[in-house]
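Shapes recur. One chain:

:::
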Amino acid sequence: MNVMIGKVSFTDEQIAQNFKALYDTVAKARPNTVKGVFMKSVTVSTTMGPGVKVTVE
């Protein structure tokens, strides 16, 4: 899944808010039939930059 959560002009807080909103939306959309871990990993990157793994608690 590729989703834009911010632009260069966004503050760190705005990007964090957008990420949390996206994460919460995806977590709520989890089908009841899915067992175990729904999202195994999350990685954030710029358009052509290297990805950075994110730890979500």
